[in-house]
Specification:
2 strands, alpha+beta, disordered C terminus, two-stranded antiparallel ribbon, 37% helix
């Protein structure tokens, strides 16, 4: 790994390795994401290109989607702490 005779650099590097946010974790190739999270940018881009929405359009997520009499929870209300750092 990294070897440095400077103790301050070694301490800084160790702090980065011990960081709970996992700054060295490559989320692109090793991360786990809900399938919807991957497709949202693609759907947004397609909607912009087709003119279905304007570039200043915003969506206020209420935490659920109502389908008939059923409320389906969205990511806001799900426990995402388990996914942190993945």
């Amino acid at each position: 790994m990294f070897i440095d005779r400077n103790e301050e650099n070694n301490r800084t590097l160790q702090q980065l390795f011990d960081n709970r946010d996992l700054p060295f974790f490559n989320r692109v190739i090793g991360g786990t994401f809900a399938p919807g999270s991957v497709f949202k940018p693609l759907v947004a881009l397609a909607a912009l290109e087709e003119g279905s929405v304007e570039s200043d359009y915003t969506y206020d997520d209420q935490g659920y989607i109502k389908v008939n009499d059923l409320n389906i929870k969205t990511g806001i209300l799900l426990n995402t702490e388990k996914l942190k750092g993945l």
